[in-house]
Design a protein that fits this description.
nine-stranded mixed sheet; TIM Barrel; 14 strands; 389 residues; 13 helices
């Protein structure tokens, strides 16, 4: 079996990112969505989503290569190759793009293709994707609602009530202007915690930069300390990814001061080498590889053993479509321990539309791991073609 083609799909929508006044739900990236399809000469195909700069990603996969190794597009080195030798294909892509890639858009494209290859390998054996990783230890996982902070305490309370009514036992509020005004932050967190009660898990994702007067900036050390002190008052399950992804030593310094807080990070990291550096800070309680950014399932599978040995909880970052939810569920289903799966409740029209049916919560607040050969998720290809540019 050989790879027949690798095709990028750039979808265009008309929704904007953010929590909008008058709307009960926030919206993820509703203006563009990027998908990748890999097909073989034996008729097998797989799809993956990836949160990246789509127009650039399309060129990385199927644009024009240059002559020298390190300046080549990904499809050039994949077409005609064996899709089942996933490790070799990952190395081929990484080396072919080394002089313009290694991180960022390129590793995100590699992630999507890597996920597709794993799905194809499972289809070739006519088994669910998780069977390739080990013994499935669970058929469903508790899901936490993943969303954005709203603009007022009242709106945040309404949102928290909305998710509780839907059956979620945990909610993560993130970004949305959090971390600029400490008094406003405390008011919003208090409204959320009072609405959720103390028996529900509250995750807080302040973001690692904020926008002030239209200009993005990172927080100072004292601002970060003050923010963490405020968050700590509301008993968070974790505090996520508030450190610049290139300044990992800050996690260690802040952990010395806030030993009672559980830090979560990893969505910004790519390749096993980056995760090794993050784990070496000895300050992370929850590791969050994003399968659409980290280097794909291959990287997550390589990182997991060390995290498990260190007693670190693994919860994938999956704030995208049900494709990424499905890949994450398969991966998490085989781990010795798995507490949560992130569930993007802020899906845009594009994010919702790529699959024929949407994942839903069971009565106990869990989402089921897909069954069937491969990923187990059926695409709506008519919607994808209709929305593509």
């Amino acid at each position: 079996m050989r790879i027949r083609d690798v095709t990028p799909f750039l979808l265009r929508g008309d929704e904007t990112y953010g929590a909008h006044e008058g709307s009960l739900e926030a919206t993820d990236q509703g203006d563009f969505l990027f998908l990748v399809r890999v097909r073989t000469d034996e008729g097998l195909e797989a799809w993956a989503d990836v949160e990246t700069l789509g127009p650039v990603a399309a060129a990385v996969i199927s644009g024009d290569s240059m002559g020298a190794m390190g300046f080549r597009t990904l499809s050039e080195v994949l077409v005609g190759q064996d899709p089942l030798n996933i490790a070799e294909r990952w190395e081929d892509m990484y080396l072919a793009s080394a002089y313009y890639g290694r991180r960022g858009v390129v590793i995100q494209c590699i992630s999507a293709i890597d996920n597709c290859l794993w799905s194809i390998a499972a289809q070739a054996r006519n088994v669910p994707l998780s069977d390739l990783f080990g013994v499935r230890r669970r058929d469903k996982l508790p899901a936490y609602a993943s969303t954005l902070f709203r603009g007022t305490p009242e709106a945040n309370a309404d949102a928290a009530r909305w998710y509780m009514d839907k059956g979620f036992t945990g909610v993560k509020f993130g970004w949305g202007g959090f971390g600029i005004d400490p008094a406003h932050d405390r008011d919003c967190l208090q409204a959320i915690r009072e609405t959720m009660g103390n028996d529900r898990a509250l995750m807080v994702d302040p973001g690692w930069y904020v926008e002030v007067d239209g200009r993005p900036r990172t927080r100072s050390r004292s601002q970060t300390q003050a923010m963490l002190e405020s968050i700590a008052s509301f008993d968070p399950y974790w505090v996520e990814d508030f450190v610049h992804p290139d300044r990992l030593e800050d996690f260690r310094l802040l952990k010395d001061e806030f030993q009672f807080l559980r830090f979560a990070a990893g969505e910004q990291q790519a390749t096993k080498w980056d995760f090794d550096r993050l784990l070496a800070t000895d300050s992370i309680s929850v590791l969050q590889p994003d399968l659409s950014r980290c280097g794909g399932l291959s990287t997550a599978l390589a990182v997991a053993p060390e995290a498990i040995r260190s007693g670190i909880e693994i919860v994938t970052h999956s704030w995208l479509t049900d494709l990424l939810h499905a890949y994450s569920l398969h991966f998490l289903s085989v781990l010795p321990d798995a507490t949560w799966v992130e569930f993007n409740v802020a899906q845009s029209h594009l994010s919702r539309g790529v699959t024929q049916s949407r994942m839903v919560l069971d009565e106990d607040g869990c989402v089921r791991v897909p069954t069937g050969a491969g990923l187990g998720t059926v695409l709506d290809e008519e919607f994808i073609v209709r929305s593509s540019i």
